[in-house]
Amino acid sequence: MITLLIIWIAFKWKQLRQIHHHIKGRWYNYIRNWFTLQKYRKLFPKGRLDLHVWNNDDPKHRAIYPFPEEIDYEKPKKNQNEDLFVIGSNVKEKTTIEVYISRKPIINLTKDKQPKDKIHVYLNIRDNNNDVYTLDEVDVVDYSQTEYKACGLSFESLQPNKIARIKFRGYLKRNNEPELVFVRIRFLCLFYSKTFDHQRLFCSNFLAKELSKNKIDLIEPLLENKIEQFCQIKGTFQVETNKINELFFLGTVGRMFPKSNPITRSVTKICGFDKEGRGFQFGLVKMGQTKYRYGFMSHSGERFKLLTNITLTIEEMERLPLIDSYEFEVTFSKSTQNHKVIIKPWKDKWNLIKFNGIEGMCYIENRVLEKSEEVIPSNNERLPCKEMVVSLEQESSKSVELCGGKGASLARLRTLSKTCNEWNVPNAIVVTTNAHAKQIESLNNFQQKMTQLKNNVFKRMDVERTCNEMKQWFGEQSLNNDIKIQVIQMMENEFGNKWHEKKYAIRSSAVWEDSAEMSAAGQMTTFLGINGEQNVMKAIVKCWASQYGLVPIEYARGYGQPLDSLMAVVIQEMIDCDTAGVVFTASPIDGDERFMLITANFGLGESVVSASSDPDTFRLSVNIKSNSHESNKRSVKEIVERSIGKKALVTRLNSNPNHQSDDLSVGICNEKVDDNLTKQSVSDNNLISLGNICLQIHRHYGNPRDIEWGIKADKFYLLQSRPITNLDSNFTSYELMHEMDTPHMDEFEIYSRAHWGENFPGATSWIGAYNFLNGASWMRSQIEQGMKTAEDYNPFKPVLAFFGRHLTDPDILDAFKFMDANAAKPSLFVRIITPFALFIMIILNPRSLRKLKRRVFIEKFGEIVSKLDGVPLKDKQTIIYRTMQDFFPYMRVHGMATLGSSIKSLYLMKLFKSKTSNEQTFEHDHNLLMSHCNDVVSAEVPNLLRIVASQIEDKETFQNLSDQEALTILQDGKTEASKMFKTFLEKHGHRGYREFDPLYLTWGKNPLPCIQVIKSLLKNPSTLEPRKQKSIDELMNELHTPLTWWKRYLIKYWLLPLCRDGVGQRENTKSILIKIQDYYREAMWTLGENLLNEGILPEKDLIFYLKIDETQRLLNGERCPNLVMKARQRKRIYPEMDKLKFDEFIKGFRMAPKSVEKEIPQFTDDAFSLRGTAVTIGAIKARVCVAETIDEAINIKAGDILITYSTDIGWSPYFPLLSGIITEIGGTISHGAVIAREYGIPCLIAVEDACHHFKTGDIVYLDCANALVTKVLE
Questions:
Q1: Which Pfam families match (predicted)?
Q2: Is 974 helix (H, G, I), strand (E, B) or coil?
Q3: Per-residue DSSP letters for 882-911?
Q4: How much is the pLDDT for 788?
């Protein structure tokens, strides 16, 4: 034993001397700490988010769905301090980004009992013009369950550990200049590495040496409670109205959860990337007398390597970043290589670095973490309320689930109004969703009628009639007596015994109404000027009934919301206003908070909201010194623009309505006025005061508001407040186009469309692309073959394409040389099995092919749809993907056939090469011999169609038929041509255009393209003749390359038959692969049908514009309007994406298409333009549909630009079809403007005589940037 110990010491002598020098002889502490660390590592062998097991078939282990732990980690913790940071750089363009968000929950709740967070945000961006933009502010905001947000900056996880986005809309300092500039940022963080958990991943040997100065009993308190992940950051950056700039970075995103520590701790870290994609971090942690260094490195998303040695001393690291320049070496685990690091100061905290001679950039930070106290969980959860009627004074009235969006917002507004004397909120009560449920429960046949309504709506059968009947039936019911008693009691409590003599506005308050995602503007009926007990009760019921009307039903269906969701009703005392209108506390177009917009008219605000009158419009400038609403009180500076409207129509309370009348519309009346044309409806002083009041509301909510207001005898009343819809929650076209991008893992990655370009000729649907970008199955295959280990398993790393042809580009050749030089040497096992794998690919693969073909086509192995019958909706997609996973080993057969065919073809080309032959000659001869291959499916398809065409008896008549008529003849006929056509569809019906994309239908589902081919063949009789096949001897005689006798013999009798068979095998395995994909296609269309029938998706094909995890969220029952709207946005921009063309090779970050400029319209000689007012952003060239009345809306086609006089709620069902809207009248808060912003489509209002100047079918260019619509050349 002693002998063995001596031998081991001799063998490790050099290493032991290094350890002895490092620990300064403290062997006892070192050994003790080493065992403590090893014990800790056994308890926690992996990182907290390292959950994926490579050989587990659960979709979560393949990162198809996220684990619950991943979802929980991404969400802000309600009662926990958190720090979030983003650091990134671009070496080539010298651009950098730093984001820091420190969040601390506030224990003592505010007066409105809303949970609050105190958030410190820091943002620093250096753009490619070398301008630096900074933000460093603190604010107190409402707690958010979905994103970290304050001062205009937010970080939101879109898919755990895969994609996140950084948003900013606000004001930054540029180059430390005093004047703030308006900046909009949308960055995507595309993750490609596994997560690095600082509490779980460390080198025990190195850390034991670092801690040898002390005896360590507890490890966890010493380690940083931090997790981070490498990513590519890319997105848009716009200053003021300048051109949008696109920025790219390699970076890291992390979260840190500060611990409750009585001791201040500090962390110094060096974090950066080089151009070749090496991400690294070295740090020093100090906590009291304990100090230790740490570090890690990962190259292009590969497994993290841990720091085992660094020559930069603790004393030197403590002086960072004060040292001018320094040079040191580092060593990482799994390697004995010393990496030389040279760092030189550059600008601010950024330094230039050379990592083994490769240029890079690094960020050096010294952050002190002060003593922190544990956050005590606050008991602020509202208990469920069973009351059917509540006042605005009750705390439960702030519950959206109980009082709906409008009611809850009004309750908060009422509470806020009591803190100041400048303005009031008219008192109100809320008839809650509990009352609605009680009313439904008391009605006979409600469930039966509701089921019939859903069935007709989802199946698009007589929708309008069914909705009208349901609305009328519900509205004719009497209010439940229990509800009636509570309403009367609450009205007496709030408005006195003579409450029935007052006048009230009775409005809907749906749970999803007035949210940041869904405005539901004017969807349900509002009753104004209602008085009398009988009319109030009747209005409550009719308000509930209005949600079953056509427009609200179609609106809810369009967002995937339940058609029978519960709704509250607000009963608010009306003020007979002298003037009323709407305020936007920021520009509704771009969100610029330096300006607010006020629209006004005499009388009630109904004339403004309904766009029935042309109101006054005022633009006010706001004094903004920061983005924080807590630290800086904003105020109105001046009125910068005013537009006095005609105001020919004024809405007022009916001065003497009969409160016993059954007509609920007599509460208000519209008066035509001739003398308002030049009168300003609000005085300048009142405008300034109103603006300052609305800024208080903006400050309280922490976001731009859409506020309805009124003035009576110079007293201000606020009637409603809602967030401006889709100002920050929507997705830009850039985000949607790039969210599925493969992240770049170095600054000079080369992408190619070769090989994949023929299979994916244009843009691919989101769900189709997701299948091919998920690299888990491919990595599992590599682990099974011994090319990777289980520790290498990284389901977040994307799959890169491959191609094969002669390459001459020096950059590409250099890239291959670099990859070869840095590639890991294959294991002994791989070297042994490679010859056997080649033998299988060349000789034995046909046997696997025949077996697989029989199983897939005859036994229908892999068919999915039948397995979904009777399965709960939430489990269906899991069954689909588990079935597809079973087929992955069989999919490898196609890869082996393709590789085998390429190897055989390569040997054939080598035989042609000689000293006398040139490249063109032997390539010509190779192609000649391969032009007559065996069993080639792609050649069989046109041949079968030629046979069908040749057997059609009356060819001339067939050509003159419509495509559908010709198809019917072939499908229903009994001629030879019909039989051959049916045979063709049976054999090749699973094939078609873009057959790898499940969005596109195959020939079996849509045979019309085949009919068009047949008709084209009939027009040219010569194409009906069969192609003459040449024998091998004939082909050999046509060769130009001189061959020796033995080469001719080898080619003729052995190699050429193998090559021809190889092409056939490759084609057949591809056909099998497409058949498997067709099973998947059928399953996804079926799943889309299921979601449509459940009312979760408004159109079944929207499933192809969702990612797999998003689809699963819907299947799990999550009714998320943002997801449905995102799918519709994706569908809208898909044609634009599909037109993009790329070069065969693209180098570096900027993967621009061949033409990055948008199409410039060609104007006709008689071209003309009309100017209006833009209420959204964007531009579109499209066909026009002029519809002055809604009766003419039947002429609208998908993608049209609608031109009309004005729109109201009745036009809403047509909005999903439109690509743009132009109205002759209207305001920024008119129905058309609100819905256009919600749908994200270009819109111009106040385009005078547009209906007269354009006609249906014209092609126009709608340009919101210049507020012009121009007729263009078709």
A1: PEP-utilizers, PPDK_N
A2: coil
A3: HHHHHTHHHHHHHHHHHHHHHHHHHHHHHH
A4: 59
> Pairing between strand 180-191 and 163-174?
antiparallel
What crossing angle do the helices spanning 888-912 and 873-886 adopt, rounded to 10°? Answer: 30
Residue 302 to residue 775: CA distance in whole angstroms: 13
Split at pLDDT 50, 70, 90, the class of 914 is low
Instruction: Tell me if residue 384 falls in helix, strand or coil.
Output: coil
End-to-end CA distance of the chain: 93
The per-residue pLDDT for 1227 is 64
Beta strands 668-672 and 338-347 are: unpaired
Percent of the chain with pLDDT over 70: 82
| 384 confidence band (pLDDT: 50, 70, 90) | low
What's the whole-number mean pLDDT along residues 965-994? 89
With CA atoms as reference, report the closest residue to 456 among 1091, 1087, 1093: 1093
Q: What is the mean pLDDT of residues 412-420?
A: 87
Q: pLDDT class for 915, splitting at 50, 70, 90? A: very low
Nearest to 787 by CA among 743, 821, 832: 832
Question: Largest Cα–Cα distance in the chain?
Answer: 116
d(CA 506, CA 569): 7
Interatomic CA distance for residues 990 and 1001, integer angstroms: 9
pLDDT at 16: 63
Question: In angstroms, rounded to a whole number, what is the distance separating the alpha carbons of residues 476 and 449?
Answer: 14
Provide the residue type at 850 as one letter.
Answer: R
306 CB-side CA count, 13 A: 15
Angle, in degrees to the nearest 10, between helices 1008-1019 and 963-972: 100
Model pLDDT for residues 1229-1245, shown as the tens digit of each residue: 665 776 777 667 888 88
Contact 689, 631 (CB under 8 A): no
Which own/partner contact pairs does 471-475 have at CB distance under 8 Å and 24+ positions apart? 471/545, 471/546, 471/548, 471/549, 472/545, 473/449, 474/443, 474/446, 474/541, 474/544, 474/545, 474/548, 475/541, 475/542, 475/545, 475/546
Mean pLDDT rounded to a whole number for the chain? 83
Give which of 479, 545, 540, 477 is closest to 504, Cα–Cα: 540
Sequence-ordered alpha helix ranges (H) in 1094-1225:
1108-1115, 1121-1138
Q: What is the mean pLDDT of residues 1021-1050?
A: 77
pLDDT one-digit tens code per residue, 641-669: 998 888 888 888 887 655 455 667 667 88
The pLDDT assigned to 1157 comes to: 46
Q: Residue 602: is its pLDDT beyond 60?
A: yes
- Collect all residues with Cβ–Cβ distance below 8 Å to 1108 and sequence separation of at least 6: 64, 65, 767, 770, 877, 881
State the Cα torsion 1052-1053-1058-1060 to the nearest 10°.
Answer: 40
| Closest by Cα among 1139, 1011, 994 to 1081 | 994
Q: Exposed/middle/buried for 1035, CB within 10 Å: 0-12, 13-18, 19+? A: middle
- The token pair at 364 is 């050096």
User: Residues with Cβ < 8 Å from 930, sequence gap 6 or more?
Assistant: 905, 908, 1059, 1060, 1063
User: Torsion angle, CA of 1125/1129/1134/1135, rounded to 10 degrees?
Assistant: 130
Task: DSSP letter for 843, please.
Answer: I
Residue 668's pLDDT is 82
C-alpha 420/C-alpha 450 separation (Å) is 46
Q: Minimal CA–CA distance to 1004: which of 991, 1015, 1023, 1016?
A: 991
Among 523, 408, 464, 562, CA closest to 1124: 562
836: CB partners within 8 A, 6+ apart: none
By the 10 Å C-beta count (0-12 exposed, 13-18 middle, 19+ buried), 1148 is classed as: middle
Cα–Cα distance, 557 to 567 (Å, whole number) = 16
Residues 6+ away with beta carbon under 8 Å from 1027 = 943
